[in-house]
Amino acid sequence: MNQKKLAIIDYGMGNLRSVANAFLALNYQAVVTKNPEDLRQATHIILPGVGAFGDGMQNLLSGGWVKVLEEEVREKNKPFLGICLGMQLLATAGTEHGYHKGLDWIKGMVKYLEVNEISIRVPHIGWNEVRFFNKDCLYSGLGDSQVFYFVHSYVFHPEDNKLISGVTSHGVDFVSSLEAGNIYAVQFHPEKSQTIGLEVLKNFMTKTGKNNA
After folding, report:
1. Residue ranges of the alpha helices (H) in 9-109?
2. Phi/psi at 44 (nearest 5 deg)?
3. How far is the first Cα of the chain from the last one, in angstroms, to the nearest whole number?
4. How far apart are CA 6 and CA 146, in angstroms?
5. Dist CA 65 CA 163 (whole Å)
6. How far is CA 66 from CA 32, 51, 79, 143, 177, in A?
7. Which of 59, 78, 9 is nearest to 37 (CA)?
8. Residues 139/200, Cβ–Cβ less than 8 Å
9. What stretches of 26-95 show up as alpha helix (H) in DSSP?
10. Residue burial 61-81, b: 16+ Cβ < 10 Å; e: rest
11. How far is CA 108 from CA 19, 50, 119, in A?
12. Within 10 A of 148 (CB to CB), how many other CB atoms are there?
């Protein structure tokens, strides 16, 4: 078993077992934790989740996660990966069922996925292509694009387009991944995206942090 210590945050926003199992398949021991203090022993941190923006942010606040996340990710620069709702909560704010402040780690807004074609449905559920704009880390060795699994109705609109590492089309183009220093975020579910998804998770573990590989 690899010596890197991965913490998966359980803040009451969905079943996280599939995320842990994906890392186990890669020979990484993942701890699914409800205790913010466990992040202090981790080398890598994952924030997954599905559900409403406001609920997710409230759970992070009430669970005591925000202060520890700020210290471990933003001050100590531990590699961090936000998945689906975990990506959206990095925004300045979200507009799902009202206006809700986010972590504000990446400036921008989370808004409903507006499509112009009646034949294209929202929620966006199923397999879709991600076109890569940054292939140094998560997408290293994966070519120019790959297909991943999505389940969402809202999308991240970052202020700084230079942080966009992946784009997907569902009636309109939307941001499907972001990279900002040690902070990585994907709108799709790598843990549900079969072999290619595992490659993304493997790249997160091997190409980030103080001791890569």
Report:
1. 17-25, 53-62, 65-69, 85-88
2. -135, 145
3. 13
4. 25
5. 25
6. 17, 18, 16, 35, 22
7. 9
8. yes
9. 53-62, 65-69, 85-88
10. eebebeebbeebbeeeebbbb
11. 26, 19, 29
12. 24
Residues 6+ apart with CB under 8 A from 130: 145, 146, 147, 148, 166, 167, 168, 176, 177, 188
User: In 10 A of CB 29, how many CB atoms?
Assistant: 13
3-state secondary structure of 82: strand
Q: Which residues contact 184 (CB under 8 A, 6 or more apart)?
A: 79, 80, 81, 82, 137, 138, 165, 177, 178, 204, 208
Start-end of H helices in the chain: 17-25, 53-62, 65-69, 85-88, 194-206
- Judge whether 50 and 84 are in contact, CB under 8 Å: yes
Q: What is the pLDDT of residues 31-58, one digit of tens each?
A: 999 999 999 999 999 999 999 999 999 9
Confidence band, pLDDT 50/70/90 cuts, at residue 102: very high
Domain ranges of the chain: 6-206
Active site residues: 84, 189, 191
Q: Quick one: tokens of 210?
A: 């103080």
**Residue 212: what pLDDT?**
56
- Considering the domain 6-206 in this protein, what is its CATH number? 3.40.50.880
pLDDT of the residue at 209: 83
Dist. CA 175–CA 7, nearest whole Å = 26
Q: For tokens 């991965």, what's the residue?
A: 6
Res 105 pLDDT > 80: yes
Q: Cα–Cα distance between 85 and 99 in angstroms, integer?
A: 16
